[in-house]
Amino acid sequence: MRVAVVTFDGFNELDSFIASALINRCREDGLEAFITTPEPVVTSMNGVEVTGQRPMEFVTEADVVLIGSGVKARDVVADDRLISRLRLDPARQLIGAQCSGALVLARLGLLGDMPVCTDRRSRPFVEAYDVTVLDAPFHAEGDIATAGGCLASQYLATWVITRTLGEDAARGVLDYVAPVGENQETVERALRTVRAGEVALR
Question: For the whole model, what pTM was predicted?
Answer without folding.
Answer: 0.94
